[in-house]
Amino acid sequence: MTGRAWLVENGATGEVLLVHNARQRVPIASITKLMTVLLTLEHVRLNDVVTVTRDAASVGESSANLRPGERLTVRELLEAALIQSANDAADALADYVGHGSQARFVAMMNARARRLGLRNTHYVRPDGLDAAGHYSSARDVTFLARVLMHYPVVRQIVRRRTAAITGASLHTWGWSEIAAARRGGVSIYATLIGSPDRGRRNADLTRLLDWGFSQYVRARPVVKGRAYAEARLAYGRSPLKLIAAGSLAAPFRAGLPVVRRVVFPDVVSLPVSRGQSLGKVRIYQRGRLVGAVPLLASRSVGRPGVAGRAGWYARRTLHHMAGWFS
Question: Where in the chain is the domain with CATH 2.60.410.10?
């Protein structure tokens, strides 16, 4: 595996599966734009119109070829920043959100990083071009990516490989160092920082994702209609089987125990109707609740009449009296 640092984690739970120098402070280049995009989404609207400044248009390197004075929507600039990693688009957004001051926007970036608990992150620029004191860590950028992926518009944009703004085509360069994929009900995030070239970076990201998926197996610890408990009934009636209302199938970490906990009352009052919910079966792994399924009465049981209840009480009294003399 090439690179200075990497991290693989479960995208849904945040459970870290594999790490190497995950808290090391390293240059993060275009991953910087994740924070630029987050602040943009938090402070302005997608249909706002941005006028590209001369400074933003001239930033250079990865570019969407924006022109000074050009007017684009926030959404179009987000597409350019996320798909093509365009520095000019990132700087245009920073100018707009920072009310004409990139220094103000960078201060916002660092304040937001502190609120998110990104302890190994410090920003100097909104676009990720090399600058002294500009760094983050594999752990921090992976957490930030998970936060950003809660936005539907971000999920829509990053699934695309091309887009068009004002008649120009954008193409992803494939330099993304954070990859996310979903397979078999499992979401895996893989971050790789400091790989020597794009080809090895993409190959290693694929290996990290595949390894992450290999850590899970799909199992069905609860089966619909199967009995998972027997409840005692009032008045001495025969025990009542409690059956699962449905099946629970989920991915589990391979090689780790799965714990099933059944919760139901000590004694069930009568009457009981078939299908009545009388408990739950809960599934845990490593202390985390994976899922729960209601337990239902397998049959209906009526409440005895007056004579039946009187006979039951009489039998209990005789039983206890016999105990006194034994």
Answer: 220-305
Per-residue model confidence as pLDDT tens digits over 27-85: 999 999 999 999 999 999 999 999 999 999 999 777 789 999 999 999 999 999 998 88
| CATH number of this structure's domain 220-305, picked from the four choices 2.60.40.420, 3.40.630.30, 3.40.50.1100, 2.60.410.10 | 2.60.410.10
| Cβ neighbours of 215 (radius 10 Å) | 19
Predicted confidence at residue 9, as pLDDT, reads 96
Q: Which fold has domain 5-214?
A: Beta-lactamase (3.40.710)
Q: Is the pLDDT of residue 326 over 70?
A: no
Strand partners, 18: 8
Q: For residue 235, what pLDDT is reported?
A: 80
Hey, what are 30's tokens? 């275009």
Active site residues: 30, 33, 85
Q: Rounded CA gap, 231 and 233, in Å?
A: 6
